[in-house]
């Protein structure tokens, strides 16, 4: 029997199915009245972030071809383009996510785990102030897509744990929710925190934790939990997504502790996260980039992780590049 297991980790697939692709590339610019703001967003998309995201649907199959021989898969959130900005309650975004998850489950039957990303729940558009978190999107993710807010998988001495960052960081995202749904979101958060406390409490002293959390904004809230603090030394790595590129991750560490700026919801969210970024350090954070990467750096990919079941060596992370199995 082999003493090693290969883990494949992917994040921010953002697969656009046929219904999302039918919306066309102007979906992100609708509702932006200021022509300068619209031009700025176009330039940002074209030269820095990701140009024509609805054309990136072949990346899912390319990843599957590269990673199909791995022993286990973890996908760390954001399965569709969320082109309706309200998460899974939007039918085109739901169908994209379903297709993505169905293909991954078919490739790794009984050998895969999936984390909620922020786009599964809905997210305000960058400049158009459209959309936001929707309670129905959470329930649809759990009930129809089989996503679990908290999950645990044991592989040898390793304890893989997945949490839902948007619930943990709800105080940051509360303005993105509908007023009539906020009390229900608070109840979901309280229940999720209890799941996490119980999950960390159940880990034996020798267990080696790999934590999966889509958005690092949630980590300071996790650090506030005494039960998490009691196991923090057992965390080998915390794998995040959301930031898409190590360039953003590097700048996040550089700007840790910056003041919170209140110039709109997107700036408020980002600067609130950066204000607390010093609290990421105890979690030993590693970013899994998006599959597509960025236009500026062409730095997309995924991770292969070699786990030593004897526990004698630390997990070995290798970046996988699409087109190179």
Describe the structure.
The chain is 35% helix and 16% strand. With 325 residues, the protein is an alpha/beta fold. The protein has a single domain, classed as Purple Acid Phosphatase, chain A, domain 2, CATH 3.60.21. A 5-stranded mixed beta sheet has the order 3-2-1-9-10. Strands 4-5-6-7-8 form a 5-stranded mixed beta sheet, covered by helices on one side. The protein is globular. The mean pLDDT is 91.
In the predicted model, the low-confidence regions spanning at least 5 consecutive residues are none
Mean pLDDT: 91
User: What do we call the CATH topology?
Assistant: Purple Acid Phosphatase, chain A, domain 2
Order of helices and strands: EHHHEHEHHEEHHHEHHEHHEEE
CATH architecture: 4-Layer Sandwich
Structural class: alpha/beta
Give the helix proportion (percent range).
Answer: 25-40%
Estimate the strand proportion: 15-25%
Question: How far apart lie the N and C ends?
Answer: 24 Å
Give a quick account of the main beta sheet: strands, pairing sense, barrel closure: 5 strands, mixed
């Amino acid at each position: 029997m082999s003493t090693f297991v290969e883990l494949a980790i992917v994040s921010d697939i953002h697969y656009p199915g046929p219904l999302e692709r039918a919306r066309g590339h102007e979906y992100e610019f609708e509702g932006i009245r200021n022509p300068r703001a619209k031009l700025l967003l176009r330039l940002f998309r074209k030269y820095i972030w990701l140009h024509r995201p609805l054309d990136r649907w072949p990346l899912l199959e390319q990843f599957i071809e590269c990673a199909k021989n791995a022993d286990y898969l973890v996908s760390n959130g954001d399965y569709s383009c969320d082109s309706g900005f309200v998460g899974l309650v939007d039918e085109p975004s739901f169908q994209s996510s379903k297709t993505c998850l169905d293909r991954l489950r078919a490739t790794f039957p009984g050998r895969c785990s999936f984390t909620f990303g922020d786009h599964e729940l809905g997210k305000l558009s960058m400049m158009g102030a459209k959309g936001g978190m929707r309670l129905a999107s959470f329930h649809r993710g759990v009930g129809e897509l089989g996503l679990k807010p908290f999950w645990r998988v044991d592989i040898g001495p390793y304890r893989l744990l997945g949490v839902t960052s948007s619930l943990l960081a709800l105080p940051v995202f509360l303005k993105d929710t509908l007023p009539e749904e906020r009390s229900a979101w608070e109840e979901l958060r309280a229940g999720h925190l209890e799941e996490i406390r119980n999950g960390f409490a159940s880990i034996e002293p020798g267990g080696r934790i790999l934590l999966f959390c889509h958005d690092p904004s949630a980590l300071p809230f996790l650090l506030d939990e005494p039960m998490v603090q009691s196991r923090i030394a057992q965390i080998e790595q915390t794998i995040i997504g959301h930031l898409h590129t190590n360039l953003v991750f590097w700048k996040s560490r550089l700007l840790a502790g910056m003041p919170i700026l209140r110039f709109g919801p997107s700036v408020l969210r980002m600067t609130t996260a950066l204000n607390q970024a010093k609290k990421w350090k105890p979690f030993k954070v590693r970013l899994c980039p998006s599959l597509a990467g960025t236009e500026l750096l062409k730095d997309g990919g995924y991770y292969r992780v070699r786990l030593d079941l004897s526990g004698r060596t630390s997990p070995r992370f290798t970046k996988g590049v699409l087109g190179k199995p």
